[in-house]
Amino acid sequence: MKLVIAIVQPEKLTDVKQALSEAKVGKMTVSNVIGCGAQGGYTETYRGAVEEVNLLDKVRFEIAVNDDFVKPAVEAIIKGARTGKIGDGKIFVLPMEECIRVRTGETGGDAIG
Amino acid sequence: MKKLGSVFLILIGFLLIAVMPASAEEAAGQVAATAAAASVTQAPAVTAEAFEALKNSMQVSIDTVWVLFAAVLVFFMNLGFGMVESGLCRAKNTVNILAKNFIVFAIASASFWIIGWGLMFGNGNLFMGLEGLFFVSGADNSPAMGDAYAGAYAAISWTGVPLWAKFLFQLVFAATAATIVSGVVAERIKFLSFIVFSFILVAVLYPITGHWIWGGGFLANLGMWDFAGSTVVHSVGGWAALAGALLLGARIGKYRPDGSVRPIYGHNMSMVMLGGLVLWFGWFGFNPGSTMGVGDGSAIAHIAVTTSIAAAMAILSSTATSWFLQKKPDFTMIVNGALAGLVAITAPCAFVGVGSAAVIGLIAGVLVVFSILFFDKLRIDDPVGALSVHLVNGIWGTLAVGLFAVDNITGAATGNGLFFGGGFTLLGAQAIGVAAVGAFTFTASLIIWYLIKLALGMRVSREEELVGLDLGEHGAKAYPDFQGFLTK
Question: Which of A110, B6, B202, B313 could link A106 by a cystine bridge, Cβ 3.0 to 4.6 Å?
Answer without folding.
Answer: A110
